User: Fold this.
Amino acid sequence: MNKSIIITGLLIFVLAVLSPFWFNFITTTEAAPEPELLGKAKDAEKCVLDKYDMRANHMSLLDEWRDSVVRDADRQYKAANGNMFNMSLSTGEKSCLGCHEDKTKFCDKCHTYTSVDPYCWECHTNPKDLAQGD
Amino acid sequence: MMKKSKRSFLKVAGIAAMGLGASSAINFASSDAQVSTHKKKAKNKEALSAHRWGMVIDTNKITHEIVENIVEACHKEHNVPDFNHEVDTKKYPKTRAVNHKQEIKWIWEEHFHYAFPDKEDEFLAERFHDLPFLVVCNHCKNAPCTKACPTQATFKREDGIVIMDYHRCIGCRFCMAACPFGARSFNFRDPRPFIEDTVPQFPTRTKGVVEKCNFCAERLALGKQPHCVEASHGAIVVGDLENPESEIRELLSEHYTIRRKQSLGTEPSVYYIM
Amino acid sequence: MLEIAIKGSKNYWIWIVFLLAVIGAGAIVYIDQFRNGLMITGMSRDVSWGFYIANFTYLVGVAAGGVMVVIPFYLHDYEKFHRITILGEFLAVAALIMCLLFIVVDLGQPTRLLNMFLYPSPKSVLFYDALVLNGYLFLNIIVGWKVLEAERNQVEPVWWTKPLVLISIPFAIGIHTVTAYLYCGMPGRGFWLTAILAPRFLASAFAAGPAVLIILCYIIKKFTKFDPGWEAMQTLSKIVCYAIIANLFFFLCEVFVVYYSNIPGHKAHIQYLLFGYHGYTALVPWMWTSLLLMGTGAILLVIPKFRSNYKLLPYICAMIVFGTWIDKGLGMISGGFVPSPLHHVTEYAPTIPETMITLAVYATGLLVLTILYKLATQVKEEVNG
Assistant:
């Protein structure tokens, strides 16, 4: 008697704890989006790091970059393929957005899907947004 | 990929160990993050460099008009909010009333006896009464703000520039209390509604961080002079204080200059030609 | 032992619900501050610390004051304090929790708080302050809890509580010394730049802490069956007496130095507080009230007839508590910022939202205190029958 109550209780507890997962499982049918490569980024074929490395570790790379720029005044980054990049999110041709022109289709696409809300853009600006009169 | 998972393990382990004060674990983990051994990072080729950046302001060449231009250029190019700016209510519908005491400024005009309160002179030379004195972060050699900061969010670069790492600032405002020159401002609110035209070359700030003059570090990196120098019609000169051959040292050896609150021993790097 | 806290009279629950309501109201305001920034406070570019840091400073004192019962009991075997030592330790716990909360609500970017430990900065006094405050908090929690548990089980406390108590004594002095060093190590602020700041902080702490404790003893006596003992309270009142006189004396030293030396950068602040500066007088009535309260309190405590008057003592203690709170809270922080380093005058007054958040922090502290004191008094009732 007691045993069954405890087991039922445990079951309900486990279900409740996992609610975000099964809720999404039932409601979301959308497949994970692919970030869209446009313009220069499409032609370049290779980014600062290898594609999968970049996918998994871009946040650590950016973290490293910002320390480097702000704290050591080093602004140039030599990528694995020998290309030089400007360690900047959005300023100039050689910055992230310099190549990946469309922030919405590149950054936001996955971030929105995974409910990640990086605070980069609280300070950094997207030149495209600014050009459109904000 | 093995390496990456090792790194994330180290990070987690580091965070766990943090309670015991073992922050070195984190540093170790992040040094591991540097993807390979050969040097990947470098300064811009065109960057201007110095052993210790300094500034000379020639009060003989300063006029109200020049001061206005300088302040405007600096604040505009660094996206410093102007709380007198009328907010675009369509874009920022819920913007609340402004408290002007919470203003933000990097460089501004003061009268002599405010800029130099310890040099208050009963019979001050006529000329100095109305003269606008530009005040700005002094990028002190012994900066009290960098000592006060509990996260090293404000620190001294190798070239003597005292700079803010806005990513790291926790907004405790200890640096503001420590600064004897009132050079620092705090973002009491989101500054964006009060920026008329956001300049794309420089980020804005977010609420809750302290900000101040950065000696135009972003300009020096491009081999350009700071905005204030360019707007000053020769009234402001920057250069290397440690280099006896530099223009700035030449100016200092030829003119009588004063610095703000010298007696405090912070060794300001901004000089005023009297 | 915690189960004691969930059994209480109707009044107990009314009090708890009241505190929770104050906390809730403050939490709602805090959410607004969290989303919109510290703009909701009265702080400004010139007065960049306000009510939060002021109350933080005051409560560090209250926490440190707890050591005034620990030292006589543990170092001098003063038996009369046996019954109230735990009250001093638990008061310190509640005060420290408030301190830490005040630091957190004062931060512009509270989510980055751990940067303090990710990037430890041994040159920053704040780093050490965080260490000693947390250290003292844990020492008090562990010692208080273990000793009380032992009392409940009617056994001797486990042996290692004693060395922890001994360590907690320098920690108590340490928390307030380091907190004073936050202020007095800064070159540009003439008001704080004085070697006597740490001793002055300690003096006012050793007055405020025990004074709060005496008031709490009255409350405990009224609402529980536990009697902290009149003799213990009398000894405490003597401690308050010495400490408040020391505090006033240190302030007098300060006043003498700035006025006799007549150095403008140092004088301006005390001038602002006592007489007003360039027509700005917001704090003048407060400061004189504070001096009057502390002075009268000191005189009443010196005279045995008044000090030993059971009815009068809580009022004297209230005077001391309020007087030191103005002195250290309102005056000490604003006084350092007015005039500014450029000798501009920007006055400060807390806003309503700021006050509500402050009250919520106090309510949180009182909640912790209520629960801890309920445990302590109940255990003592059980044991003493």
In short: The radius of gyration of chain B is 21 Å. Chain B is about 25% helix and 15% strand. Chain B touches chain C through 56 residues (CB under 8 Å). The mean pLDDT of chain B is 87.
